[in-house]
Write a structure and sequence with these properties.
The chain is an alpha/beta fold. It has three domains: about 280 residues, Glycoside hydrolase, family 3, N-terminal domain (TIM Barrel, Alpha-Beta Barrel); about 190 residues, 3-Layer(aba) Sandwich (Rossmann fold); about 120 residues, Immunoglobulins (Immunoglobulin-like), CATH 2.60.40.10. Helices cover about 25% and strands about 20% of the residues. It binds alpha-D-glucopyranose (GLC).
């Protein structure tokens, strides 16, 4: 559609850098406008230059954050979220949505975990792939980000992630490799260095791995401001530097005149950009707005409801009973619905007060008090909050971390709740034995100081516009909780990543290698607060009749029954792990390789089947520079969480001798 021959050398150089914060070069009308917009939690269209610029963002639907998509374990929900956001991209003329981020949640202290799916590469990759499918099904492009090893926010512009090849391929690049199956239009390179070289100038990552090994055919764009030297990034095959960069043209032109870059180098990236623009024009033909504003809101409620995680429910304290309730906490009125930074969405939706929703739903007396204001000032009305709690039959206490504590470009400093929130929980638990704590947060919270004092804990994540309606539906039993944690909740961050640099930035060595998260906790026998894949339901499930049908030298079909022992239908996430029994290299105790979320009928069952391929049994061999399966015995483990294995069966890989090494 756009022939490189029709562009001068100068025009080709200008193609390689944005013309402002969000748009590409249009070559005096030879090319259509291409507008890039954030983000993973909804359309953040900032200062459209055509509409006079400025910093106010347009109003858009605030989706449940990616942390919730992770805890939902449901590719359909991820697709629905992407597709819902794409509606508003189409309405406002944004051609590419700068999402999803699939970076591994290496540490619970990472400030951007709320924007990422999981600590596990298979879960993160498959959900990221589904999100891309959802967005692109509406004719809107995507940006798979932040490539790569952007697992900390401290010192993110210059920190160097120091990592061995096997860990990088087996853990940190796998989510990108899987998500690329959805053919995103762009990949966004990250700010940080990888083994000393910025991602934007890292040809090994951008060309050798991303294109030549993973087969990526779209364009690589920089994170905003991640491109330091335009000709060096050009040599690394960074196609598009964003945003506009005043010295980019001169840097490339000078390098060309000095012979540091060739016209061939320039043409390689310019061609990629023209192909990308042409692909977007083709995608425009299928653009459509599918839902009304109200339907998009309902989508946020559905996703939020199916992704919140019930962590504790002693004595069946939940669902709430038709007796008096006291709701405490300012977040019940103004919930924390998202994390801060470029993924923040300006919503015009006003949350209904949780107390009012509970009153409407249960038709009981519901009392309320702020109990605290924000995170900075002290407890207000502490005495009256305690007195109100004492009078009620049940207490719902809402706590958590808002954007003042959880935001891009800064790591978290602690896993525990604010002292004021912990103190409130302790004081209220002294006067009421039916306390339920609702946590609004973007990553793991250390509940250990107080969880034994309360009977119920609901981890809400960040539910976007659907937050309070989802919390109410779950607390009242209108919906059955079916989320499970997509990251380990450790007792301490150092249990996961003990590297002191993690908190400081600078050179961050991934010394833990492949043994982080549940992989590390199990191998090192470190107890955790809540394990990867954990989440309760109001229903009870059993797992039976596991069969493993060998379909190839190192592949099989795994089938099992999930039985619902309760008299109401409910969804259950089942998890399939692989354990290499006889391997001669270090491997984790087990690794997630498949999962399924299924609606199981009341007092009924469903037979679930998943397939495992040779890749699911392989580890990455640095010597072979490829994935490798050692013949021998494996265990296939099916469970309700990583530490609640219900069924297991032996499987033997029998690859031909020529594919084996001694
Ligand atoms: C930000 C983020 C990136 C975002 C971009 C544009 O710094 O790292 O995720 O898409 O800049 O806002």
């Amino acid at each position: 559609m756009y022939d490189l021959k029709n562009f001068t050398l100068d025009e080709k150089i200008r193609l390689l850098t944005g013309i402002d914060a969000w748009r590409l070069y249009m070559a005096d009308g030879k090319l259509p406008e291409v507008f890039l917009s954030d983000g993973p939690h909804g359309l953040r269209r900032v200062g459209n230059p055509k509409e006079g610029g400025g910093d106010t963002t347009i109003f858009a639907t605030a989706m449940p954050n990616v942390v919730n998509l992770g805890n939902g374990w449901d590719e359909g929900l991820a697709r629905l979220s992407g597709s819902t956001i794409a509606d508003e991209c189409v309405m406002h003329g944004s051609d590419v949505l700068l999402a999803p981020g699939v970076n591994i949640k290496r540490s619970p202290l990472c400030g951007r975990n709320f924007e990422y799916f999981s600590e596990d590469p298979v879960l993160a990759g498959r959900l990221g792939k589904a999100f891309i499918e959802g967005v692109q099904s509406k004719g809107v492009g995507t940006s798979l980000k932040h490539y790569a090893l952007n697992n900390s926010e401290n010192d993110r512009y210059s920190a160097s992630s120091e990592i061995d090849e096997r860990t990088m391929r087996e853990i940190y690049l796998t989510p990108f490799e899987i998500a690329l199956q959805a053919k995103p239009t762009t990949v966004m390179c990250s700010y940080n260095k990888i083994n000393g070289i910025h991602a934007s100038e890292n040809r090994y990552l951008l060309k050798d791995i991303l294109r030549d090994t993973f087969g990526f055919e779209g364009i690589v764009i920089s994170d905003w401001g991640a491109c330091h030297n335009r000709f060096k990034s050009l040599k690394a095959t960074l196609d598009l530097c964003m945003p506009e960069k005043g010295d980019a043209f001169d840097q490339v032109k000078e390098a060309y005149e000095k012979g540091w870059v060739s016209e061939e180098d320039i043409d390689y990236c310019a061609e990629n950009v023209l192909t990308f623009i042409a692909r977007l024009q083709e995608m425009k033909k299928i653009r459509k707005v599918e839902w009304t504003k109200e339907e998009r809101h309902e989508n946020t409620v559905k996703i939020a409801t199916e992704s919140m995680v019930l962590l504790k429910n002693d004595d069946g304290v939940l669902p709430l009973k038709k007796r008096s309730i006291c709701v405490l906490g300012e977040l019940a009125k103004k919930p924390a619905i998202c994390g801060g930074g470029s993924s923040h969405v300006r919503t015009e939706y006003t949350q209904k007060h949780l107390a009012d929703l509970l009153k409407e739903t249960l038709e009981v007396e519901v009392d309320y008090e702020d109990a605290y204001h924000g995170h900075t000032c002290g407890l207000v009305g502490a005495r009256s909050s305690i007195e109100r709690a004492a009078k009620a039959d049940q207490v719902v206490l809402v706590v958590g971390e808002d954007t003042s504590l959880v935001c891009e470009a800064m790591n978290r400093t602690a896993l525990r709740l604010l002292p004021k929130h912990e103190m409130l929980i302790e004081n209220v638990a002294r006067v009421n034995e039916n306390v339920i704590v609702v946590i609004e947060a973007g990553s793991a919270i250390d509940t250990s100081p107080w969880q034994h004092l309360v009977k119920g804990i609901l981890y809400a994540g960040y539910g976007g516009d659907g937050t309070n309606e989802a919390i109410c539906a779950l607390l009242c039993g209108k919906s059955v909780p079916c989320g499970k944690l997509s990251e380990t909740f450790p007792f301490a961050a150092d249990d996961v990543v003990s590297n002191p640099n993690y908190a400081r930035g600078g050179i961050d060595r991934y010394e833990e290698g492949i043994l982080y998260g549940y992989r590390g906790a199990e191998y090192n026998e470190i107890p955790v607060l809540y394990p990867f894949g954990y989440g309760l339901s109001y229903a009870a499930f059993d797992y039976e009749n596991l069969t493993v049908e060998k379909t190839g030298d190192a592949s099989c079909t795994v089938s099992y029954d999930v039985i619902n022992r309760s008299d109401f239908p409910a969804k259950e996430i089942s998890e399939v792990y692989v354990r290499d029994i006889s391997c001669r290299v270090l491997r984790p105790e087990k690794e997630l390789k498949a999962f399924s979320k299924d609606l199981i009928p009341a007092n009924g069952k469903k037979r679930v089947s998943v397939t495992l391929t040779e890749r699911d049994f392989a580890y990455y061999s640095v010597n072979l520079k490829d994935w490798y399966v050692e013949n021998g015995a494996f265990d296939i483990l099916v469970g309700a969480s990583s530490d609640d294995i219900r069924l297991s069966a032996r499987f033997t890989a029998t690859l031909p001798e020529e594919k084996q090494f001694t």
